């Protein structure tokens, strides 16, 4: 169980130059993703690896060399602390990125899992957006859509509006799965949940249940409501 964008934490010595309100928006953290990943991990008796800093410090789901890994602007918000970074400052950010992906690699070597679940969340509306995103959740993938197909069918049976490589394409924004799952031919669920579903304890509990069902469906074990 992975959550690349699990926290809004900014390490000492890093000043992003933005308000606390912006830091804890969807631009800085995948709201609710850590709770869902932990809850599912406990129920499945599986390890959970959670990203340790804000995605604005370094986006763990991007190549470290990608300019978007340390964004100077996100959803219309300027991030002054990410502008004109020195080589030394970038090296610190890149070290965080490398350490996270080493943890994932070690876990995969040790566990040989049947499935990887990567939990993310997305905002219902981008700033300046004219309409609300319609999907309750989305399954993202690149070349390997085996688990995604089973999960999409499962969520649709629950009466949900499900994005098929929406609200983003896993081919473009799926670095963690492209790096760890696809080369090992491990089926994966790259799950995006609309974050207004994760705003309270009831919503989190519901989506833990739904996600456990999706995992079971992806593993061919059926699941609640299947």
From TrEMBL:
GO function term, MF aspect, one: hydrolase activity
Entry keywords, A to Z: Hydrolase
Superkingdom of origin organism: Bacteria
Keyword Ribosomal protein: no
SUPFAM superfamilies, sorted: Zn-dependent exopeptidases
Cited Pfam families: FGase
Protein name as catalogued: N-formylglutamate amidohydrolase
Species whose genome carries this gene: Pacificimonas flava
